[in-house]
Give the backbone structure.
Amino acid sequence: MLATPSIRSGRGGPATITAMATLDPEAMISRFRERAQAVKRRPLPPVAGEERQQFIDQAKTDYQDYAIIADAVATIEEGVLTLRIDLRPADQRD
């Protein structure tokens, strides 16, 4: 969960963030895993033809995007969130 950072301006200069936002990367990845599964369970709306195909195509894209993030290994170093995602086939991974 992100904390709301406070913003202040000093001596007429640009505003700066005075508190770091906190993030639980494992919880974030878990939410993406849940979203990927929700897309798989999403029922098709009562549409036909081109609209139906657009819905199916969007669901495939949504699932892929969420599943990629769900497979990430997340680290936060010096305030930078890094998601490491191994895109190699399973039989070629370390």
Notes: Residues 22-92 form one domain. Strands lie at 7-9, 15-17, 73-77, 80-84.
